[in-house]
Design goal:
Strand order of the largest sheet: 6-10-11-18-17-16-15-14
Shape: elongated
Strand content: 25-35%
Helix content: 25-40%
Largest sheet: 8 strands, mixed
Structural class: alpha+beta
Distance between the termini: 43 Å
Number of strands: 18
């Protein structure tokens, strides 16, 4: 229980009120600077003599008995998120960066009349303040610092939002720094993301993978079907592309002998933005020499399940809407063509005539961009099957004409050894048995070039340098790609703008 009293939740201040508060705070800033005896102090001192963090104090003395003193003096600093000034004793809650709070008690007896009066005049909500004093437990049992001296560490000239009101989504996204100050879930999201990425790296390290970095500025975009961002290099006087995928460079590394390789870095795709897509996103890609799409699926399942354990302590994660989602066990693997046939009530194979697929799409109200056979199959599959997948599911064996970097299936004509992993309605990862035959790869690139000439802005270009690398021999390999932002979506149930700390917004 704290020393603070519950009060009626006030409305958010108007723009005029914020402007007035800013002016008052700026005047306090001027006073702090003018009255500072040391140029290193004032409203923004270079440093303050912190001896302990707020979490340190909580960890060391959080269980002391009510109304006791420890005899230990500490110096702590934090942001003021609650303040109550009454007579001879003032109370404030100091918050550390991780959200841990500690009460500061500023009394006439401990700091003197002048210092107490300055506290009441100069200290505002949102200020960073340093306090030094004895660690005690108050009469209400609240762990506190009985302040003996204090100092402004950084003066806030704008007021914090009302901490009793929920920030709207636009404010959370556009002013993430405020979101981090006032909302515990926002801070947890940052920690969970860091834990998940660290877990991925541990799993890769345990399995003998090497992490490398590949170029983000590329002379030719490739590695995925996506529309790129285009820029210009003044130094080279040439058009460059922000990468849409690191695939073609990671495969060069496999050709060079780095048999187990991965990268976690940024990708950029000049496409739409919604609850599962962002123009800029973090991507994991990995390649496993002498593996295939089955072994890389096993690895992907392990990566995600280990992340769940390291973030949530269990394979069963609790999403933001309260739903418990089980990522444990062995995940289902279903055939795209067989599951589509079952759901549509008719047999659909790689040999099904295009006219028949078009008729089914029209009857289902689907508009298929760039209407080739594989596009129809995939759009129909999403219409009939995707929404019914609840458990994590690998959807196996895709049409050949939509997967130009994947090898033909070893026993089923007309499909390639590719899977997409779906988690509760969205695609989380994709994996392949990689195409390593340079002759067939060239044929696939030529077909892509024809699509590009026909207006498909997502089609790949013919990459001669990559083909040359393949001609030196790439071992049979399995490869996978997974969005880090989407991994966090799977672990938390949040939308992509909540899992990206600073998402792009218009």
């Amino acid at each position: 229980m704290t020393e603070h009293r519950t009060v009626e939740t006030p409305d958010e201040p108007t723009a005029d009120e914020i402007s007035q508060q800013k002016q008052v705070r700026l005047e306090k800033r001027e006073r702090l600077i003018a009255e500072a005896s040391d140029p290193g102090k004032g409203a923004y001192p270079v440093s303050v003599p912190v001896t302990h963090t707020i979490p340190d104090v909580r960890a060391n003395w959080g269980d002391i008995e009510t109304d006791t003193a420890t005899g230990v003096t500490v110096g702590v600093a934090g942001r003021i998120v609650h303040v109550r000034n009454t007579g001879k004793l003032c109370f404030a809650s100091l918050q550390s960066g991780d959200g841990t709070r500690l009460q500061a008690m500023v009394s006439l007896a401990s700091v003197g009349e002048e210092s107490l009066a300055e506290w009441k005049v100069l200290v505002d909500l949102g200020d960073h303040v340093f306090v030094s004093g004895e660690v005690i437990s108050s009469r209400r049992g609240e762990l506190s610092i009985m302040v003996e001296s204090w100092q402004i560490a950084s003066k806030a000239v704008l007021p914090l939002p009302n901490l009793h009101n929920e920030l709207n989504e636009e404010t959370r996204v556009r002013s993430r720094y405020l979101d981090l100050i006032v909302r515990e879930q926002a801070r947890k999201n940052v920690v969970m993301r860091a834990q998940a990425v660290a877990s991925l790296r541990r799993t890769f390290d345990d399995d003998g993978f090497i992490e490398i970095e590949t170029p983000m500025l590329q002379v030719m975009h490739g590695g995925a079907s996506a529309r790129p961002f285009v820029t210009h290099s003044n130094a080279f006087d040439t058009e460059l592309f922000l990468r849409i995928a690191p695939e073609l460079y990671l495969k060069r590394a496999v050709v060079g002998g780095i048999d187990h390789v991965f990268e976690i870095n940024r990708n950029f795709r000049n496409e739409g933005a919604d609850s599962t897509h962002s123009p800029e996103f973090a991507m994991l890609e990995a390649y496993q020499a002498y593996g295939d799409y089955n072994s890389i699926a096993d690895l992907t399942q392990k990566l995600i399940q280990n992340s769940a354990m390291d973030v949530a302590g269990s394979h069963v994660v609790t999403w933001a809407d309260g739903v418990e989602y089980d990522l444990g066990g062995d995940w289902d693997r279903i055939s795209m063509f067989e599951s589509l046939s079952d759901a549509a009530g008719r047999t659909i194979t790689p040999e099904t005539p295009l006219a028949e697929l078009k008729q089914l799409a029209d009857a289902s109200g689907l508009e298929v961009p760039h209407p080739i056979h594989g596009k129809y199959v995939e759009e129909l599959w999403e219409h009939f099957v995707k929404g019914g997948l609840e458990r994590p599911t690998f959807v196996m064996d895709f049409p050949v004409d939509t997967s130009p970097l994947v090898r033909h299936h070893r026993s089923i004509p007309g499909v390639v050894e590719k899977w997409d992993l779906y988690v509760r309605g969205f695609e989380l990862a994709t994996g392949y048995s990689e195409l390593v035959d340079p002759v067939i790869q060239r044929e696939r690139f030529v077909e892509q070039a024809k699509l590009a000439a026909g207006g498909d802005l997502e089609a790949m270009q013919l990459d001669e340098e990559f083909l040359r690398a393949l001609e030196f021999g790439m071992p049979p390999s399995g490869g996978m790609g997974m969005g880090i932002d989407r991994l966090l979506m799977a672990l938390t149930g949040l939308g992509i703008r909540e899992t990206i700390l600073f998402p792009l917004v218009k």
